[in-house]
Amino acid sequence: MKLTVSNNINEYYAQTLCLLFFPGSRFSKAEDEPEGSPCADVSALETENGAEATVTLSYGGKSVTKTYTEPVCANLISDAERIAVGKAFFAAGKALLGISPQWGILTGVRPSKIALKELCEGKTKTEVKSSLTKELFVTPKKASLVTDIASIEKKIIAKVPERSCSVYISIPFCPSRCSYCSFVSVASKKLLSITDEYLERLINDVEKCFDTIKKLDLRVLTVYIGGGTPTTLDEKQLARLLDTVNKNVDVSSLEEFTVEAGRPDTVNEEKLRILYQSGVTRVSVNTQTLNDDVLEAIGRRHTAKQFLDAFELAKKSGIKIINTDLIAGLPGEGFGSFSDTVERMIKLMPENLTIHTLCIKSAADYGQQLRGVKASARGEVSKCVDYAQASAKNAGYIPYYIYRQKNTVENLENVGFSLPGTEGLYNIYMMEEIHSIFAVGAGAVSKLVSRDRNKIERVFNFKYPFEYLKEDEERMAERDKKIMDFYEKIY
């Protein structure tokens, strides 16, 4: 897609707006774009009345130009120019393609952030919903969803002590790689052979991480071991890692201790016993679908029955909260199959049920092929998501956290549902940037959050396991110093 923007406009923001109407596009300013490719020209200027933006969209032999002026006293976002560009883009896309994105001109990962801010400033839920629909063109259904979530988050966040944090531990290994996955994870036998070496280094870093937290006089509220698939570790390795956590923090004082067991083919009774005895309070056992043909097509080496067996083991293990994930829009799965999965899953009544929408990423093994799925699925995936969310609510689940990703089918969302009182707290703290998340392991990113939550700084670990294992002492020291310097400035 050819995109031209005036110098004062954030190009990345313009790209995200393009993706609302032309999902999966790659951007170029080259004059030799293939004939028929969509084009966007975006400009903005300051006027006496505020900010005026003009957007011209061209595609399929048609061209539409729309102009919008936004007063500087915008209600929800102070950047009038940004809103003007968004609204002009929305109008042009709607006129050219007949599409009205359900999230309006909201493009960010955290759609609840605006609603939460408004609620914390004293607005009622009705006022927040009205602002979202009128100012940002969010549909009433999505405005209601995100406001309800923000209301739940507000109550939970109010109880968070000032000097608190969470810890994330990365296990970037999986028994096989799902075709839609873009996470940094290791699946080949050769690479899986480094798990012992990786664990040795990881345990050392976990100990250092908790030592830093103690020096900073912070209270750990949640610990989350994710990946990858942490239960790819064998029983001995898993017990060693969990013992390390127990030796460095009073697990009984945690609000939540989560381990992902996302692949049923890595779950057995002994591993679940180890998790339970180590104080784990929340475990994810995922399937994404209960259609065996779709499971095979997406590279998950387990059947629906294996998931059901693993889920039953988890229920019997004594672990308090079980989460399972579903993905709407998987290749080869239509509404009939997906709705059947939803109905069967709700009968199992996991404490948490996360409903994702397929996200097409170029790093996925067949991201290019999936782009065709996205283009052909318009309307079908939205129907699946609506059905799943309505079914969850009717069964007594409440939506408690939400996030969106670029290149998600139909620009939809991922929503976590829970039975009342079983919300995944780490998900809220992380997604709403409530306090610092100290992250350990390959691909992990520590997110340092100031006391007033207005300053956020990220500290990156090496992305790949082999890089992580070769990290030198000097770089490790630099990362530690960055963390200490951040806290010296904010306290």
Structure overview:
This protein is α/β, with parallel strands linked by helices and 491 residues long. The chain has 2 domains: 1-100, Double Stranded RNA Binding Domain; 157-438, tm_1862 like domain (pyruvate-formate lyase- activating enzyme, Alpha-Beta Horseshoe), CATH 3.80.30.20. Helix content is 42%, strand content 20%. The protein has 17 helices and 15 strands. The chain has a 9-stranded mixed beta sheet with strand order 11-12-10-9-8-7-6-5-13, with helices on both faces. A 4-stranded mixed beta sheet has the order 1-2-3-4.
Task: Give a quick set of tags describing it.
491 residues, alpha/beta, Double Stranded RNA Binding Domain, pyruvate-formate lyase- activating enzyme, 9-stranded mixed beta sheet, 4-stranded mixed beta sheet, 17 helices, 20% strand
Q: What kind of sheet is the major sheet?
A: 9 strands, mixed
Which residue ranges are poorly predicted, with pLDDT under 50 across at least 5 consecutive positions? 363-377
Structural class: alpha/beta
CATH topology grouping of the largest domain? pyruvate-formate lyase- activating enzyme
| Average pLDDT number | 90
What general outline do the C-alpha atoms trace? globular
Approximately how much beta-strand content do the residues carry? 15-25%
Our measurement of the CA-to-CA distance between the termini, rounded to an integer number of angstroms, reads: 47 Å
Let me know the CATH homologous superfamily of the largest domain.
tm_1862 like domain
Count of alpha and pi helical runs? 17
Number of strands: 15
Assign the CATH class of the largest domain. Alpha Beta
**Strand order, sheet with most strands:** 11-12-10-9-8-7-6-5-13
Estimate percent helicity. 40-55%
Radius of gyration: 23 Å
User: How many structural domains can be distinguished in the coordinates?
Assistant: 2
